[in-house]
Target: diguanylate cyclase
Amino acid sequence: MTAWGTFFCFLLLWVGSPSAHALQAVVDVKPQIVELTDFPIEYFIDPSQSLDYEAVRRQSFETTTSTTSLGTQAPVTWYRVALHNPGTAVRRLFLHLPKAYHVRSVSVFEERNGKLIDQASVNLDEASDHPLIYQGKVVYPFTIPAEETTFLYVRSNAYTHQWFSLKIYGDEQSRRALAGGQLDIALLVGMMLALVFYNGLLYFATSKKENIFYSLYLISGLVWIALSYGLIASAFNAYGDAVFVLNLSLIAMPIFLTLFMMAIFETRKFYRTEHRVLQGMLALLVATFLYGLFDIAAALKPASSLAALMMVVTLSVSISLFRKGNPLVKFFLVGHTFFVIFNGLAVAYYKGLVEPSYINSHGVGIGIVLEALTLAFIISYRIKVLEDIRSRQGELKRQAATDPLTRLYNRRHFMVEGEYMVEQARAAGRPLSVIAVDIDHFKAVNDTHGHGVGDRVLTNVADIFRQFSRDQDLVARFGGEEFVVLLPGADHAEAYGCAERIRKAVEAHTLEGDGGVPIRVTVSLGLTEVNGVAESLENAVHRADKALYEAKTSGRNRVCFSGGAGG
Model:
């Protein structure tokens, strides 16, 4: 095209198009690969929300970029782009509106030489089978003749926030753009689903209410991410009012986060002031949620400001708990700081205060996932702390129930646990036997070889008891050199066999004393079968002691048996 031809073309545009005098930029469509994703466009906010194409094209437009955010004060906005074909062949192009899934409706008007040559409208409530909708995107095909300019007007009617993105592609680039995308959002949602599953397992293991609140927080977050970034539209081909109501998840999310904080930090019990602050925030959020059940669009308009207030309150409470020494809040502060930073960028983006970028537009999703990972760590860490406490408590109970030298149970534990075993045997009609054991001439061992060797004798004998008793048997050191074994399910014959195995094992065992002197000891044993009708464990142990006394007086290193109760 000659210089005079170019001048004539623009002169014709200025005369033929009523709005051309306001046009700030014309985008040249190069004859090479067409993939326009960041270029200047213009916009006009329709305050009446009722102007038609003819009226709008005479308005003054302002300049912005092809990806922009105008906040909540621009529900109906017209966008305009001028595309010039400097080549000698007709160009077939495609207008992509990748964020169309979150608006009420979108209309495209195609103008050339001051005349409307084509138009199309998409009502998102009825868009499931619309030919211009593909996975939540509006795709409008158009052509530009050689050496001519086409104006595209796009009317976007948003529910609340006016987020807009416009891209121009050639045929092959359009197909690639439709085939790609959403992988990052699917990854975020997949991570949160995995956390929901993991947390569900934790709930069944611990039954802690904070696990419920955390799960609901995760579910609300992943619903909002999938909705806001088009994954629901892409996966389920669902749009319009029925889907838009899912934006309530944006309000539900901080509700469950607040409840989680109150539960995990036990604010009701330990931090009354912070608890009241969180209660106030919770009341405001719940009221907004209930209002959203009746008018979701109106409830979401102050959502960005409410989110900012929520971040200030939760961060302030977290800092207060940190100063008061809460051991978990330092981890929460790390994750919540990420949440506040990225959500702050997102709030600024939604209000149109910052330039569009991937981080700004995806800030909520990134912040939610980072905080969700931190909360998962907090829950796991708290479980570990509780398990450590239980372990220490269990160790203290074990120490209270065992003899420190032999590590066998002590007399107190034997009598408490033994009574329970007697009741079980009586209810099941099963036999139960008691063996009383005493080390022969143990005083002589202490006097001859010293108490150190005597202690080694006790521990060696205790090891033999463990080796020759069953897992269900209850073995205890009653004091000094006396031991008792309770054998559930064992009648007189089985108990006698066990007693004999213990006696022979002790007799065969040799302990090396100081200077390599071999030391051997024997044991005397008395056994009895517990009367299953009404005999107490104490009485049965007393009868076993009588049988033990008989074994010692009749020569030691033997087993004697005592008959039924009173026998």
